[in-house]
């Protein structure tokens, strides 16, 4: 086990993940914890190029699910080796806006890729550098969709998927949370913002108390 602490933030479509990330940043800062923030797909210059490839809508050719999965893990391999592992090895705290669980949810649940292939890549690329804490923002997909619509920004390639895709993504996330309840903390993101923040505050405080 590496000496640093690793936190990840996950969420279904429109759950308010970006809003939550801002709250978590402020809360950790107020708790005098210095954190390196990063995101997936992305987090290094090369991985950010792969992110563009993954999220930019393309008119010339449809991306196959296998290609999407392998590109997610290609970006992750770079991210792990160049940023996450060195920081954790140096004893630093790292927080990532999405990470491995998203591959099980989106490529496994959403794209219906057999999880045995994701597990193989997981064991190879992530190994035992698993997050210590994952905050999973969960919302009914219909409600999430309405929130995302209100945001009014252009949809990326994955956000353009239909409702049944996001229903499967949510189910796969919930299965992950059930399999690993000690690490993955489920947050009811359908509530008003102050209640979502209350849930996150108490999870973070408990985590900080236990590791210090
Ligand atoms: N992906 C993948 O497929 N496989 C992988 O392995 C990985 C990722 C790592 C990029 O992620 C995509 O990559 C993502 C999964 C895939 N695709 N999708 N879809 P991203 O994290 O960069 O993008 P995102 O999923 O679109 O996340 P986001 O920008 O954080 O969106 P959000 O959850 O919808 O958050 P938001 O913008 O904060 O909230 C939406 C709106 O709701 C906004 O107007 C807020 O003001 C509002 N809001 C927030 N909280 C509340 C509450 N509590 N009440 C009412 N309104 C609220």
Gist of the model:
This protein is of the alpha/beta class. 57% of the residues lie in helices and 13% in strands.
Write the layout of secondary structure elements.
Blueprint: E1 5-11, H1 17-30, E2 35-39, H2 45-55, H3 65-89, E3 93-97, H4 100-110, H5 115-126, E4 133-138, H6 141-151, H7 163-179, E5 184-188, H8 193-211
Parallel strand pairs: 1-3, 1-4, 2-3, 4-5
Helix pairs in contact: 1-8, 2-3, 3-5, 4-5, 4-7
Determine the CATH superfamily.
P-loop containing nucleotide triphosphate hydrolases
Q: Going across the major beta sheet, what is the strand order?
A: 2-3-1-4-5
Distance between the termini: 16 Å
E-strand count: 5
- CA-based shape: globular
The helix-and-strand class reads alpha/beta
Q: Detail the poorly predicted runs.
A: none
Question: Under CATH, the topology is which?
Answer: Rossmann fold
What is bound: which ligands?
A: ligand Z5A
| Approximate strand percentage | 5-15%
Supply the number of helical segments. Answer: 8
CATH class call: Alpha Beta
Oligomer: single chain
Helix share bin:
55-70%
Main beta-sheet strand count, sense and barrel state: 5 strands, parallel
- SSE pattern: EHEHHEHHEHHEH
What is the CATH architecture descriptor?
A: 3-Layer(aba) Sandwich
- The number of distinct structural domains comes to 1
Radius of gyration (Å): 16 Å
